Amino acid sequence: MANRVCEILGIEYPIIQGAMAWTSMAPLVAAVSENGGLGVLGSGFMPKEIILQQVEIVRSMTKKPFAANLFLDPGPQLEVGVSAIIEGKVPVAYIDSLNLLDLDMATEYYKRLHDAGCKVIAKINYLEDAIVAEKAGADVIIAKGVEGGGHCTKVSGRVLLSEVVEHVSIPVVASGGIATARQAAAVTVAGAEGVEMGTAFMASEECPVHPNVKEAVVHAIDRDIVACGASTGEPSWQVRNKLADEMLEIEATHTKAEAADMIREISQGSLRIASLEGEVKEKGAVLAGPVAGLIHEIRPVKTWIVDFTEEWKEWLKKSYTLF
Ligand SMILES: Cc1cc2nc3c(=O)[nH]c(=O)nc-3n(C[C@H](O)[C@H](O)[C@H](O)COP(=O)(O)O)c2cc1C
C-alpha cells in the first residue's frame, strides 16, 4: 500500500526534517530532499529576501520537493512568509503557530497557499489544533510532542499522536524525541504515517551550523537538555551550559515579568553566537531536544533517510508476542 505522506508531498521516504530557525538552511534542506525525504527551510523568522535567496539555493541543489516554514500568528512576519512561499513557488508550506489555531484564519491562509499550488503541512501541539487544521483543509498534520526540539509545548508525543490519529482522517506524522528506526516503527504501530526529526538532522554532516554545535548535541546526555525561558511564554530546550544555567537561576529567583526581561536580554543573539561562531560553552545557545541523548555521532543525511528506512522496515517485520 502506498504511503499517503509520500504521495501527497511527492517524496520517496516518509521522513520530514523539522524546520529549524537559522539552522535548517539550504544545504541541509537540499540534502534531505535530494535523498528522498522532505527538507524544510527554517524560514519562520527570516526577512523575505533571505527566504527567496535560500529557496533559489535549494533549487540549484535539487529538483525534488522541499518546504519552507512560516508561523500562522498575526503580525507582519506572517505576510512575509506567505508571500515569499508563493512568489518563490515553494512546493510545500510547513506551518507552525505559537498560539492556538483560529479556524477562519487557517482556512483563509491554507486556501491562499493551495490556490498558489502549495501543499500545506500543519504542525500542531494539541488535539484541538489538529481538528481545526483538518477542517481548514491541511494536507498533512505533524503532531509534535513536548519532547520535540525548539519551543517546548505541553502534551507528550505519545499521548498527542494517539489522540490525533483517532480524530482526523488526513495523514499524521509523529514528531518529537525520535532518532531511531525502532522508535519510528513504534509510532507507525501507534498510527503515524511518517516521522519528523529535527535534532537528529542538526547533527548531520550537511547541516550548516558550526561543528561545535553538532559536537554539543552528540555529547549531550538526556539530562543535559533543559527547558529555559518559561517566563517569556516560549520555553525552548537547550543544551545545558553557562547561559542555560544563568537563565534557570534567573527564573528561579525573580518574578515572571522580571525574569522575562532579563532572559530576553542575556539570550539576545545567543543562537547566532553558537551556530555561526561556535561559542557553545558560555554565551551561545544550543537549541536541541532531549533526543540528543540518543544521538551519538555526526552522520551524513543519507543515512538518516535511506538506512533509517531500511531499519524501520526491519523493525516492522519483527513480530512480538506478550501472551
Ligand atoms: C534548533 C532548533 C530550531 C527549531 N526552530 C523551529 C522553527 O523555527 N520553526 C518550527 O516550526 N520548529 C522549529 N523547531 C522544531 C523542529 O521543527 C521539530 O519540530 C523538532 O525539532 C522535532 O523534535 P526533535 O528535535 O526531537 O526531533 C526547532 C528545533 C530545533 C532543534
Description:
- This protein has helices at residues 4-9, 26-34, 48-61, 76-87, 103-115, 127-136, 157-167, 181-189, 199-202, 211-219, 242-253, 256-267, 270-275, 301-317, and strands spanning 15-17, 39-41, 66-71, 92-96, 119-124, 140-144, 172-175, 194-197, 225-228, 236-239.
- The chain folds into two domains: 4-208 and 296-317, Alpha-Beta Barrel (TIM Barrel); 211-292, no CATH class.
- It is globular and about 55 Å long.
- 45% of the residues lie in helices and 14% in strands.
- The chain has 14 helices and ten strands.
- A hairpin with a 7-residue loop joins strand 9 and strand 10 (236-239).
- The strands form two sheets. The chain has an eight-stranded parallel sheet with strand order 1-8-7-6-5-4-3-2.
- The model has no long low-confidence stretch (mean pLDDT 96).
- Helix 3 packs parallel to helix 4 (76-87) and helix 5 crosses helix 6.
- With 323 residues, the chain is an alpha/beta fold.
- Residues 18-21, 23, 42, 44, 69, 96, 123, 144, 147-150, 175-178, 196-200, 202, 287-289, 291 line the site of flavin mononucleotide (FMN).
Counted by DSSP, the helix tally is 14
Low-confidence segments: none
Provide the CATH superfamily of the largest domain.
Answer: Aldolase class I
The portion of residues forming beta strands comes to 5-15%
The CATH C-level class name of the largest domain: Alpha Beta
Largest sheet: 8 strands, parallel
Distinct small molecules bound, one entry per kind: flavin mononucleotide
Class per helix and strand makeup: alpha/beta
Whole-number tally of structural domains: 2
Shape: globular
Order of helices and strands: HEHEHEHEHEHEHEHEHHEEHHHH
Helix content: 40-55%
